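User: Aminopeptidase P N-terminal domain-containing protein. Structure?
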Amino acid sequence: MLKIARRCYATTFRAGQPIFETRPHLVKTGDLTPGISALEYYHRRLKLAEKLPKGSLAILPGSSVKYASGSVFYQFQQNTDLYYLTGWNEPDSVAIIERPEGSDDPHDHIFHMAVPETDPAAEQWEGERTGVEGVQEIFNADVGVSVQQFPNHLDKLLRKYRDIYYDIGGASGASGKSVNFFERMFPSTVLNDNSKPTNRANVEETLRKHAKLGFSIQPLSHLITDLRVIKSNAELKIMRLAGKISGRAYNQAYAKRFQSEKGLHSFLEYRFISGGCDKSAYFPVVAGGSHALCIHYVRNDDLLRDGEMVLVDAAGNLGGYCADISRTWPVNGTFTPAQAELYESLLNVQRRIIRECKVSKGHSLNDLHNLSVDLLTVELRNAGFQDVQSWEVAKYLYPHYIGHNLGLDVHDCPLYSRSAKLRKGQVVTVEPGVYIPDDERWPLEYRGMGIRIEDDVAIGEDNNVVLTAEAAKEIADIESIASSGVTTKIEEEVVDIYSL
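Assistant: Predicted structure:
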């Protein structure tokens, strides 16, 4: 049970992540992370407990710090399933949800956290840690232990339960995160004699031996996926703000003339963060000219040339939640007739697909993708691609999918079926693209052009909300901003979750 009173302590806690007591400008009272309350995190764990059978454990290892080389580390990225259930954003930790055998009430679940102990010497180098006491007092863990105590703690739990829910190898899409933790905690559990990770069956067998009794291991991520795919009002509020900040950054970019991909890249990242986001949601694509034919072009090291377009796929992350935007516009601010023709053809497709993004239409993502291919085929024929067939469009000119779920991960909930009908509260991207190779099969005036237009859409029963609506995409609007600039002052754009 959630113990709200725990946060009414007298002692001042040091914490390894923003909390109200240390960063009140980022996290407000009652919230654990920006915009998400302690009560919402409790209800997420409760919903998971409702899906677990009595007499079971759900084990969620967190991520570790990753290193580029030597002692040069990457920015820490938590296992998003663990973050979703706990709000905990420090490395080398484990969450366990225990559903006791003797109770029919999921409210009686027990929330365990194993976290690094406070350590002044380590903290001098790596920063503050919340520690075992803090994870109980601040993050409402019913049981807190140090990671050093965790092997014995888990051993005792495994002796009590036969049904274990745990993703071998990180089934949520975060490959290796779960295995990496157990490699450190239980080397004999997940490594064979050649120090290579074993397969799922061998891991299950060695876990049985470790616990000295038989138990079954069931995958966990699909249970959490069913929760994560539907966003709460609080989540939608954060994602709307991330989209708003990111969209405004694009408008600021339209108003400038950049000489290089690198310059545009750095400008957008600066605007995301100065506007209120925490960081970029992913490494940006900034593809000038024919580089846009490469869907995931990330070199971003060429010059931008007059008369060509630039395709950008970039957005900010706020409170752990991602925006995802793609826009394509002329480097000099004015579309040529051929650029405008191809761009408008694609925009017509995107507009139509967004109109279809509502529960009442009964569509799945697969339905929307198939419709987008058919619509683009018609548009291209009208633009001069005589007799082009849908299969050619899908294979050569539009080889990627219409979109994906969005949330804590850019490609959120990858286990969720694309054949499932859209649901209220789901957030999906709508990102048709068209990429015309330098091939004589295609009209000369379009060759070398690559265009993608992407927005984030929150699904409603008979409507939807475009979370990234601020990013201009109509030709007239882009050219107007490029010519006249953006009148909104930068300081007026710095907003936070609590101002909405």
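Confidence is low (pLDDT under 50) at residues 172-180, 187-204. Residues 230-499 form a domain with the Creatine Amidinohydrolase fold (CATH 3.90.230.10).
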